[in-house]
Design a protein that fits this description.
The protein is an alpha+beta fold. Helices cover 38% and strands 15% of the residues.
Length: 68
């Protein structure tokens, strides 16, 4: 049985933490007083990838900020 996690709030932070716990195998429930699309926009909760261009410094900053 997976450990259970309860998250209060479905904003960008709550949703991001929820995804991270899911990736680690936790059973996640997110509670919010508003419907999720009234809490944040579709574009705020999205997959993130570092830019694929010639700016090495920017790419490295993005990769360093990724919490993996």
């Amino acid at each position: 049985m997976s450990p259970k996690i309860a998250i209060i709030g479905a904003g960008v932070i709550g949703t991001t933490i929820g995804v991270r716990f899911l990736e680690k195998g936790f059973n996640v429930t997110i509670f919010t007083k508003d419907e999720p699309l009234n809490t944040n926009s579709d574009s705020a909760v999205a997959l993130w990838y570092p830019p694929n261009d010639s700016h090495f410094y920017l790419q490295q900053l993005c990769i360093d900020s990724l919490p993996y």
